[in-house]
Amino acid sequence: MTHCDAPPPIPPPLQPRERPGLLSVVLPAFNEALNLVDLLPELCRALADQAKRLELLVIDDGSNDDTAWVVRSKIQQGLPVRLLRLSRNFGKEAALCAGLDAAEGEAVLIMDSDGQHPIATALQMLAEWRRGFDMVYGVQNGRRESQSWTRRGFTRLFYWLIHHGSRINMPPNAGDFRLLDRRVVLALRTLPERARYMKGLFAWVGFTTKAIEYVPHCREHGVSSYGLVQLLSFALVGLTAFTKMPLRLVSLLGLLVSVLSVVFGVWVVLEKTLFGQPVSGFTTLAASITFLAGVQLLCLGIIAEYLGRVFDEVKQRPLYVVQDLTPPLLTGKSTRNEASV
């Protein structure tokens, strides 16, 4: 049997676990007061018997509604809820990092605060974690059918660039809805980059994973803050953080343009010397200059995106700034160098 015909390696057997001593649920929230009113008690009822202890950690990412007031009222009612308020809106990726830094559980469940992630799927994730999987993530079922053909095309292009330009396997239609073992959380805390694309970081750290399909619930209150511009910006962060394929493609584009230019130059010379055809004038020259200028600007724009990521990294600013934490951390301190006021 040749090396190419060798069977794939057999994964190690899973080690079953008991229910966690502490289950942390990380809930990033930006103006989700109306959704949290019902979601927090529902989570407490559904997850109370899934762990010896339960904590619901709400990260208020600079909300300007009553999100903090709602969470504090649930704390006063005796629910196992903690509130971590950031000093301003740092974005969902930073809020997720803040939640993972503050979570103390043996298992950490990440859910959105809008109530669209089914609790029944979260219970399935816990069952798979007890079977031995280190990371269990949700995959939206039927998401592609609900998207326009333009968005599906850009999505396919994005994943093609990721899969052909890096050594990680980033599953499509998987998001932040996932359950992490403690050692996965500790591995994520060691990653120092400022340009955070959590979906890629989850795939990068590896460990044994399991996918579960789910159908998201409809949002009952508010609207999503992710528009087309935000999604495109998010995709650029993911591309520049996990693949150099765009840089390689612009290099190939430059080579192709150079070859075409040489071929065109040879053709013009042959036309003039062999057939006596006059050399084209201003129109050909203007079109060639405009085309080459567009190619150069495209290449410079892609290079500038990567250079901008380097600029963000060398500043060494913290990912987020904590305004207050209620109640305080259960044990120890965060391993990340975040600021607080």
UniProtKB/TrEMBL annotation:
The keyword Membrane applies. InterPro entries: Glyco_trans_2-like, Glycosyltransferase_2, Nucleotide-diphossugar_trans. SUPFAM superfamilies: Nucleotide-diphospho-sugar transferases (SSF53448). The chain crosses the membrane at residues 223-242, 249-270, 282-307. Keywords: Membrane, Transmembrane, Transmembrane helix. Pfam families: Glycos_transf_2. Residues 24-185 form the Glycosyltransferase 2-like domain. This is Glycosyltransferase family 2 protein. It comes from Roseateles oligotrophus.
